[in-house]
Amino acid sequence: MVSRTNKFRGGKSRYHGRGKKAGRGAGKRGGRGNAGLNKHKVMTRIKYMPGHWGMHGFNRHPSLRKVHVTANVSQLTDLAEGADNIDLEKFGIDKLLGSGQLTTAITVTVEHASARAVEKVEAAGGSVTLSEGDDDEWEEE
Protein backbone atom coordinates (compact mmCIF):
# COMPACT_ATOMS: atom_id res chain seq x y z
CA MET A 1 0.00 0.00 0.00
CA VAL A 2 1.24 3.46 -0.89
CA SER A 3 1.81 5.89 1.99
CA ARG A 4 -0.06 9.15 2.12
CA THR A 5 3.11 11.14 1.48
CA ASN A 6 3.96 9.09 -1.58
CA LYS A 7 0.43 9.46 -2.87
CA PHE A 8 0.89 13.22 -3.07
CA ARG A 9 4.35 13.07 -4.66
CA GLY A 10 4.61 14.27 -8.20
CA GLY A 11 3.62 17.38 -10.09
CA LYS A 12 -0.12 17.50 -9.45
CA SER A 13 -0.23 17.89 -5.68
CA ARG A 14 1.86 20.69 -4.33
CA TYR A 15 0.53 21.01 -0.79
CA HIS A 16 -0.45 17.44 0.09
CA GLY A 17 -4.08 18.26 0.63
CA ARG A 18 -3.46 20.82 3.34
CA GLY A 19 -3.48 24.10 1.47
CA LYS A 20 -0.65 26.55 1.57
CA LYS A 21 1.46 26.46 4.78
CA ALA A 22 -1.20 24.66 6.78
CA GLY A 23 0.67 21.52 7.71
CA ARG A 24 1.44 22.07 11.38
CA GLY A 25 1.33 24.79 13.98
CA ALA A 26 -0.04 28.24 13.21
CA GLY A 27 1.37 28.38 9.69
CA LYS A 28 -1.56 29.72 7.75
CA ARG A 29 -2.09 32.68 10.04
CA GLY A 30 1.55 33.69 10.09
CA GLY A 31 2.34 32.58 13.61
CA ARG A 32 0.57 32.81 16.92
CA GLY A 33 -0.12 36.03 18.79
CA ASN A 34 2.29 38.85 18.11
CA ALA A 35 4.70 36.74 16.06
CA GLY A 36 6.13 38.58 13.08
CA LEU A 37 5.20 42.11 14.13
CA ASN A 38 8.53 43.39 12.89
CA LYS A 39 8.65 41.07 9.87
CA HIS A 40 5.66 39.98 7.82
CA LYS A 41 3.02 41.68 10.03
CA VAL A 42 4.77 45.04 10.16
CA MET A 43 2.01 46.90 8.30
CA THR A 44 -0.58 45.53 10.72
CA ARG A 45 1.48 46.91 13.60
CA ILE A 46 1.89 50.31 11.95
CA LYS A 47 -1.79 50.61 11.08
CA TYR A 48 -3.57 49.07 14.06
CA MET A 49 -1.03 49.24 16.88
CA PRO A 50 0.56 52.69 16.87
CA GLY A 51 2.91 53.16 19.79
CA HIS A 52 3.17 49.42 20.44
CA TRP A 53 6.93 49.45 20.89
CA GLY A 54 9.16 51.85 22.71
CA MET A 55 8.95 53.68 25.99
CA HIS A 56 6.03 55.93 26.83
CA GLY A 57 5.90 58.68 29.42
CA PHE A 58 8.53 59.11 32.08
CA ASN A 59 9.24 58.25 35.67
CA ARG A 60 11.23 60.54 37.88
CA HIS A 61 13.68 59.10 40.36
CA PRO A 62 11.98 58.58 43.75
CA SER A 63 14.46 60.93 45.43
CA LEU A 64 13.30 63.76 43.14
CA ARG A 65 9.59 63.28 43.79
CA LYS A 66 7.88 65.56 46.28
CA VAL A 67 4.62 64.08 47.44
CA HIS A 68 2.87 66.20 50.05
CA VAL A 69 0.11 65.11 52.37
CA THR A 70 -2.26 68.03 52.02
CA ALA A 71 -5.22 69.64 53.71
CA ASN A 72 -7.41 72.46 52.47
CA VAL A 73 -8.40 75.63 54.30
CA SER A 74 -11.98 74.33 54.45
CA GLN A 75 -10.84 71.39 56.64
CA LEU A 76 -9.15 73.54 59.29
CA THR A 77 -12.25 74.13 61.42
CA ASP A 78 -12.92 70.39 61.64
CA LEU A 79 -9.29 69.62 62.52
CA ALA A 80 -9.02 72.39 65.12
CA GLU A 81 -12.11 71.15 67.02
CA GLY A 82 -12.85 74.53 68.61
CA ALA A 83 -9.24 75.46 69.40
CA ASP A 84 -7.72 78.67 68.08
CA ASN A 85 -4.40 77.14 67.06
CA ILE A 86 -3.52 73.91 65.26
CA ASP A 87 -0.33 72.06 64.41
CA LEU A 88 -0.99 70.16 61.18
CA GLU A 89 2.17 68.08 61.52
CA LYS A 90 0.54 66.21 64.41
CA PHE A 91 -2.07 65.04 61.90
CA GLY A 92 0.63 64.00 59.40
CA ILE A 93 -0.18 66.92 57.08
CA ASP A 94 2.76 68.81 55.63
CA LYS A 95 1.10 71.24 53.20
CA LEU A 96 -1.86 73.59 53.47
CA LEU A 97 -3.77 74.38 50.27
CA GLY A 98 -6.24 77.19 49.65
CA SER A 99 -9.46 75.46 48.62
CA GLY A 100 -12.59 76.42 50.57
CA GLN A 101 -13.46 79.15 53.07
CA LEU A 102 -12.46 79.86 56.66
CA THR A 103 -14.65 81.89 59.01
CA THR A 104 -12.81 81.62 62.35
CA ALA A 105 -9.40 82.97 63.28
CA ILE A 106 -6.99 80.04 63.58
CA THR A 107 -3.22 80.03 64.03
CA VAL A 108 -1.81 77.26 61.84
CA THR A 109 1.63 75.65 62.06
CA VAL A 110 2.61 73.67 58.97
CA GLU A 111 5.71 72.86 56.94
CA HIS A 112 4.47 74.24 53.58
CA ALA A 113 1.55 76.46 52.61
CA SER A 114 0.33 77.87 49.32
CA ALA A 115 0.03 81.62 48.85
CA ARG A 116 -3.76 81.38 48.51
CA ALA A 117 -4.03 79.42 51.76
CA VAL A 118 -2.01 82.05 53.63
CA GLU A 119 -4.25 84.80 52.19
CA LYS A 120 -7.44 83.07 53.31
CA VAL A 121 -6.21 82.28 56.82
CA GLU A 122 -5.02 85.86 57.33
CA ALA A 123 -8.26 87.26 55.88
CA ALA A 124 -10.15 85.32 58.57
CA GLY A 125 -7.94 86.89 61.26
CA GLY A 126 -5.54 84.02 61.80
CA SER A 127 -1.92 83.41 60.89
CA VAL A 128 0.23 80.72 59.27
CA THR A 129 3.57 79.74 60.81
CA LEU A 130 5.88 77.69 58.64
CA SER A 131 7.90 75.20 60.62
CA GLU A 132 11.61 74.35 60.35
CA GLY A 133 13.69 74.52 57.22
CA ASP A 134 11.73 77.14 55.27
CA ASP A 135 13.14 80.60 54.59
CA ASP A 136 10.21 81.70 52.43
CA GLU A 137 7.04 83.12 53.92
CA TRP A 138 5.09 80.65 51.80
CA GLU A 139 5.62 78.29 48.92
CA GLU A 140 3.95 78.70 45.55
CA GLU A 141 1.70 75.85 44.35
Structure description:
This protein is α/β, with parallel strands linked by helices and 141 residues long. The chain has 2 domains: 17-57, no CATH class; 62-130, Ribosomal Protein L15, Chain: K, domain 2. Helices cover 18% and strands 13% of the residues. The protein contains 4 helices and 6 strands; from the N terminus they run ααβαββββαβ. It has a 3-stranded parallel beta sheet with strand order 1-3-5. The longest helix has 9 residues, at 115-123. It is rod-shaped, with a radius of gyration of 35 Å. The mean pLDDT is 88.
CATH topology of the largest domain: Ribosomal Protein L15, Chain: K, domain 2
- Treating each run of at least 4 consecutive H or I residues as one helix, how many helices? 4
Number of structural units classed as domains: 2
Question: What fraction strand?
Answer: 5-15%
Report on the biggest sheet.
3 strands, parallel
Proportion in helices = 10-25%
Please give the structural blueprint.
Layout: H1 4-7, H2 42-48, E1 70-72, H3 76-80, E2 85-87, E3 95-97, E4 107-110, E5 112-113, H4 115-123, E6 127-130
Parallel strand pairs: 1-3, 2-4, 3-5, 4-6
